[in-house]
């Protein structure tokens, strides 16, 4: 067999990737499990300058890890997020849920003139208490989550809120930062975000459970 | 009902997002369907400065659209990519395939000391002729694809090759640019990429089929 001219060993690829991130990114703000989360988020997007944009409540990573260990479900705003979660890392065979395909979502979205992403959030209530919510796609889903929390929906243990884009993404993440009250959160303070960064944060927490 | 303080109309969110991208991004290099592809790729990551990093063969978008219309399958390197494809946009109920979950992949990966992402590429051969390959995750998958094409595997119609990260991603995309021969391609000339950008490029092509 001819040796390929590129690195193929998965463990070595991870090792070198994380070494490059540690060498290039300013990780001084992060410690413990939150450092692992930041590294994984940077790894998912290929941008070391994501580091200064990452915002988090002080206990976010520890609370997320405890919730995962306790078997909490992971609620995702998009199937892309759900399929980015590395299930073998989950410490308690945690459920990974996404309600956007629920047959009721279209009706609710059209009746309210809102997105399907936001309409599904009303179907999160029964699983919300103590869960990990991971929003990687839709600003409207994060806005709607904050609304139902203000209306008294049971709080999740952690919100990873990193919707992406040009309309509402910055504002939704600012609202998470400002309005989430005592719900621990992890977010990114600019337009960046997305399913891969969202799933990566969750995967880092799951990886830290071992 | 209290009017929410954020935009909820999906069509208007898209319209304003694309208007912002047109206002802020330098799209002069793009025309026709490729402009739509560039806009969707930028939309997926929230970064207008992705525009100058996008590279493509002159006929990439048109060839991709023709292949989709002809019913070509879409082969994805990751389930995240596959689940980012908006199926209702596909013009011919095109198959969307990902082989990473195939039970043979683990064995091949371990025997060769390579990633599961790369090992699955050998299972793409039977669907490869005239297909659309969308690599959003693994540099090793893109490297392996180029290897099997050099070994005489039937060429796809288009390769959307945007693996992300710190080890091999830049190199794999440069190899696509340099070695793909007459296989049309769309790529990004830096560390950036990922499942969302990959799926967005495919979704743009599908959207242009109408």
UniProtKB/TrEMBL annotation, chains A, B:
SUPFAM superfamilies: Precorrin-8X methylmutase CbiC/CobH. It comes from the Bacteria. Keywords: Cobalamin biosynthesis, Isomerase. InterPro entries: Cbl_synth_CobH/CbiC (IPR003722), CobH/CbiC_sf (IPR036588). Its EC number is 5.4.99.61. GO terms for molecular function: precorrin-8X methylmutase activity. GO terms for biological process: cobalamin biosynthetic process. Pathway: Cofactor biosynthesis; adenosylcobalamin biosynthesis. Residues 12-206 form the Cobalamin biosynthesis precorrin-8X methylmutase CobH/CbiC domain. PANTHER family: COBALT-PRECORRIN-8 METHYLMUTASE. Belongs to the CobH/CbiC family. This is Precorrin-8X methylmutase. It comes from Pararhizobium mangrovi. The lineage of its organism: Bacteria, Pseudomonadati, Pseudomonadota, Alphaproteobacteria, Hyphomicrobiales.
